[in-house]
Design goal:
With 373 residues, the chain is α/β, with parallel strands linked by helices. The chain has two domains: 20-119, Immunoglobulin-like (Sandwich), CATH 2.60.40; 137-370, 3-Layer(aba) Sandwich (Aminopeptidase), CATH 3.40.630. It is 30% helix and 26% strand. It has eight helices and 15 strands. It has helices spanning 2-12, 165-183, 201-210, 245-255, 272-281, 286-303, 337-344, 346-370; strands at residues 20-29, 33-40, 51-53, 56-61, 64-66, 80-87, 90-97, 104-108, 113-119, 143-148, 188-191, 215-222, 234-239, 308-314, 326-333. α2 (165-183) packs across α8 (346-370), α6 (286-303) runs antiparallel to α8 (346-370) and α7 packs across α8. The structure holds zinc ion. The site of zinc ion has 6 residues, from loops.
């Protein structure tokens, strides 16, 4: 069933889509690298791997057009020349740089944005321990986004006790919001939903990015296809190619939420290549995602009745494109009678939210130290 669904998802993702119009290109030049951000009017369906020709980097965007005046004044720099032209259905971007020209990468940052990074000569785009966010307001942990999984027509999994995942996730999300607000009164908490409503997966990430979130926490419940089932405990996921078929099945079940959406063409197929690209887009902060995920597992096992099943990794649509550290928590197996009873109870939800808050506390200490605050 899961495999059949995965095949359907992959097939639908290859349907043609209307041309995207590239609308803005902005640049950020530092000694270490040149960052070029390309924004489009709609989902950028595809782009080709950057091609190097001498001091020029060429990137082609199939099925796209561009608007006049799209190159921002931030790209006016003595070391940099940008040129855009239309060749049949392709928009071709040429970037000529008189300096830099180390490793070149192009990755998605959300559905409508692609970021090209040109490292300085001899440098690498790989993030080193020293190449972490610098201390400035841009990285200040001032907004935390809490995502209650599912909602409305998308009930999520149904528990062995008849309770729906969407109701448990919302209850825990609200408890966590209150705890974060009490502990960090200067931090804004953004909820992707506050009621029993359906919110598309892409929109959840979009809400997080638009509210300039510095941390994204997606809350879910796990479930096995047959009930009752002995599997139980908590897993926290980060976005990366999966290590095992169990992780892939969890992601396939969560990603199936897009069946309730009108325009599922927007989701690029999460095959191995695309998942690697999506993961690369998050590499500057993946170690923070790992830190939070590991904290959550530790705090859940010490604070709640739930067993820790460890940190895991897979491709979740809801995490793709998040431009901030992010995790997805599978709080408990609602296909297991003990886990279901616990996570459906006020006590279980309250303790789980408390455990996540404690994990955030540890995260904040590490994060602030890392950015030098
Ligand atoms: Zn879920």
């Amino acid at each position: 069933m899961v495999r059949a669904l995965a095949i359907i998802l992959i097939v639908v993702c290859f349907r043609s889509v209307p041309a995207a119009e590239l609308q803005n290109i902005s640049c950020e030049v530092t000694e270490q690298r040149i960052l070029i951000t390309i924004k489009s009017s709609s989902t950028i369906d595809a782009f080709q791997k950057p091609e190097r020709k001498g001091s020029t980097v060429i990137i082609r965007f199939p099925s796209s057009t561009f608007s006049k005046g799209l190159i921002d004044s931030s790209c006016t720099n003595g070391n940099l020349a940008l040129n855009v032209e239309q060749i049949r259905t392709f928009t071709v971007l040429r970037i000529t740089a008189s300096s830099h020209l180390g490793d070149v990468s192009a990755v998605r940052s959300g559905q409508q944005e692609v970021v090209v990074t040109i490292a300085s000569a001899g440098g690498s785009n790989e993030q080193s321990e020293n190449n972490i966010p610098t201390p400035n307001s841009h990285w200040k942990l001032d907004v935390i986004v809490i995502d209650a999984g599912h909602g409305g027509v998308d009930a999520g999994a149904e528990g062995v006790n008849g309770i729906y995942e969407k109701n448990i996730t919302l209850a825990i999300a609200k408890r966590l919001r209150t705890l974060v607000q009490d502990k960090y009164p200067d931090t804004k908490v953004v909820m992707t939903r506050e009621t029993d409503t359906f919110v598309e997966l892409y929109k959840r990430t979009q809400i997080a990015n638009e509210s300039k979130g510095k941390l994204f926490i997606s809350i879910h419940c796990n479930s096995m296809p047959s009930k009752p089932h002995p599997a139980r405990g908590t897993e926290t996921y980060i976005l990366r190619p999966g290590r095992n078929s169990d992780a892939a099945s969890v992601a396939a079940r969560e990603n199936a939420s897009i069946q309730f959406e009108k325009l599922i063409d927007r989701y690029a197929s999460l095959n191995e290549d695309n998942l690697i690209l999506a993961t690369m887009a998050q590499r500057s902060f993946v170690r923070f995602s790992e830190e939070l995920a590991s904290n959550i597992q530790k705090c859940v096992s010490s604070r709640t009745q739930l067993k820790s099943r460890g940190v895991n990794q897979a491709g979740f649509f809801v995490l793709v494109g998040a431009s901030m550290p992010n995790v997805l928590i599978e709080t408990a197996f609602i296909s297991n009678p003990e886990d279901a009873a616990y996570i459906s109870s006020v006590n279980g939800q309250s303790e789980t939210a408390q455990a996540v808050l404690e994990a955030i506390n540890g995260y904040v200490r590490t994060y602030e130290k890392a950015i030098g605050q």
